[in-house]
Specification:
By secondary structure, the protein is α+β, with helices and mostly antiparallel strands. The chain has a single domain, classed as 2-Layer Sandwich (60s Ribosomal Protein L30, Chain: A). It is built from 2 helices and 8 strands. The strands form 2 sheets. A 6-stranded mixed β-sheet has the order 1-2-3-8-6-7, covered by helices on one side. It has a two-stranded antiparallel sheet with strand order 4-5. A hairpin with a 4-residue loop joins strand 4 and strand 5. Helix 1 packs parallel to helix 2. The radius of gyration is 14 Å and the shape is globular. The two termini are 14 Å apart.
Amino acid sequence: MRDVISTPDAPKAIGPYSQAIRSNGFVFVSGQVAIDPATQQVIDGDIAVQTERVIKNLAAILKAAGSALDKVVKSTVFLKNMADFASMNDVYGKHFTGAPPARSTVEAARLPKDVLVEIEVIAIANQ
């Protein structure tokens, strides 16, 4: 079973992909960047501001899939500049408390729309 997840509360896909796919008890959320779903434009701001928007987008997609941030088991963070790690990590840590998910963080040469951060997650789907 494979369900496509889509919500107007997160940015529209900017390519041939789904916001998320729910399959076999998991939700696989595509990488999200700091786009405001109301305007479909990248928001202004530093890494902290952009990370906060990315996490709001992830939370909206997970909600649409019947999941939530506290169900995330794995995340991958892509940073434009690894020097932004501490600031991103501060914001990230406010949303993933208690038993945070496994995570990888890598510096990427260039991210979509020239944003500072992109995050993708895998979460447990509510049964």
